[in-house]
């Protein structure tokens, strides 16, 4: 009998959409039970959101003051304790998941499976390697629990709103480590959609030319209600902050529409957008690699084409 425990990711009392994507992967395993585990100092609102996700059997909650901030050293022992009796433990392959899942795997004495992009069987998975240039099939040992991170760009979010799973509080008799403490969280604030969950993304590259010129990208993104991204070259040049970077060493995204402006299309960048629905490329170099993967390509000066597009949109 297979039972899957999905670790909920949340911040400021809100459930991250990546959790619903991890649930989609769990559903693909066709288990008997899918439970979502919420660890927080205040679980009510988060648990209520998790209970609405289609496919979730139960929402388990652990309320402790130590869980006010998502510290892997604190959360992992609690997750490992709850995981007893589960055949799988899934977490989204986000900064949060990549931080906490290896600790859980170590505590359970198993090897972690990373970035699951498809399910071939209850213990057979596919994941990308070599910057997404190859896909490898991984066979996990059925005799042991599977601890895995889910490549969120490869999975649509499970439907939300129709379900009403029961919420069950847990009381864990376990001492959590005190050697790690929360100091502060620094993150960029923006009124634009979140880059990793947005349906539309407009990204700029080295071809934009400068930090000041990047306003063209921001303005166009605001015009169409899109999130803003950037290539590593644009980030390294100081045009935009690091949190906007898309690609192998940045964020892996899968929007319905991705517009690459002034981006040549290095393989590291393409790795981050391979699961996008429609890719539009705008570049003055007609031989740029980005055009090999683009569904729609415009060759020309972005500073002329973008105003024309804005005018056409109205």
The CATH topology of the largest domain turns out to be Rossmann fold
Structural class: alpha/beta
Order of helices and strands: EEEHEHEHEHEEEEEEEHEHEHEEH
Tally of domains: 2
Give the CATH superfamily of the largest domain. HUPs
Oligomer: single chain
Radius of gyration of CA atoms, rounded to a whole number: 21 Å
- Identify low-pLDDT runs: none
Number of extended strands:
17
CATH class of the largest domain: Alpha Beta
Report the portion of residues in β strands.
Answer: 25-35%
Amino-to-carboxy terminus distance:
56 Å
Largest sheet: 7 strands, parallel
Strand order of the largest sheet: 7-11-6-1-4-5-12
Mean pLDDT: 94
Tally of helical runs:
8
Characterization of this structure:
Strand 4, helix 2 and strand 5 form a beta-alpha-beta unit. The chain is elongated. It folds into two domains: about 170 residues, Rossmann fold (3-Layer(aba) Sandwich); about 110 residues, TPP-binding domain (Rossmann fold), CATH 3.40.50.1220. The chain is built from eight helices and 17 strands. Helix 3 packs across helix 4 and helix 5 runs parallel beside helix 8. The mean pLDDT is about 95. It is α/β, with parallel strands linked by helices.
What would a concise description of this structure say?
Keywords: Electron transport, FAD, Flavoprotein, Transport. The chain has helices at 18-28, 44-51, 72-82, 95-108, 215-224, 232-236, 267-271, 302-313; strands spanning 3-7, 10-11, 14-15, 33-40, 58-63, 88-92, 112-116, 118-121, 124-129, 134-139, 146-150, 167-169, 200-204, 227-230, 257-261, 278-283, 296-299. It is of the alpha/beta class and 314 residues long.
């Amino acid at each position: 009998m297979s039972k899957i425990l999905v670790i909920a990711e949340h911040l400021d009392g809100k459930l991250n959409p990546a959790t619903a994507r991890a649930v989609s992967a769990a559903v693909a395993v066709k288990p008997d039970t899918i439970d979502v585990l919420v660890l927080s100092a205040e679980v009510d609102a988060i648990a209520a959101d998790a209970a609405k996700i289609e496919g979730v059997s139960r929402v388990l909650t652990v309320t402790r003051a130590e869980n006010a901030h998502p510290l892997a050293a604190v959360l992992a022992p609690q997750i490992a304790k709850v995981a007893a009796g589960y055949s799988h433990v899934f977490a989204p392959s986000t900064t949060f998941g990549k931080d906490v899942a290896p600790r859980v795997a170590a505590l359970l004495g198993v090897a972690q499976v990373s970035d699951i992009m498809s399910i071939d069987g209850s213990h057979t998975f596919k994941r990308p390697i070599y910057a997404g240039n190859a896909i490898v099939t991984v066979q996990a040992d059925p005799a042991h629990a599977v601890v895995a991170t889910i490549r969120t760009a490869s999975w649509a979010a499970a439907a939300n709103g129709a379900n009403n799973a029961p919420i069950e509080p847990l009381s864990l008799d376990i001492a959590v480590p005190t050697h790690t403490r929360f100091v502060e969280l620094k993150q960029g604030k923006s009124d634009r959609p979140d880059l990793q969950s947005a349906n539309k993304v407009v990204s700029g590259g080295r071809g934009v030319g400068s930090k000041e010129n990047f306003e063209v990208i921001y303005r166009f993104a605001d015009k169409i209600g899109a999130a803003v991204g950037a290539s590593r070259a644009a980030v390294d040049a100081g045009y935009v902050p690091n949190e906007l970077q898309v690609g192998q060493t940045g964020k892996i995204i899968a929007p319905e529409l991705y517009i690459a402006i002034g981006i040549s299309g290095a393989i590291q960048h393409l790795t981050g957008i391979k699961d996008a629905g429609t890719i539009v490329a705008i570049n003055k170099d007609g031989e740029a690699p980005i055009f090999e993967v683009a569904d729609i390509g415009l060759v020309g000066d972005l500073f002329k084409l973008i105003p024309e597009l804005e005018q056409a949109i109205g």
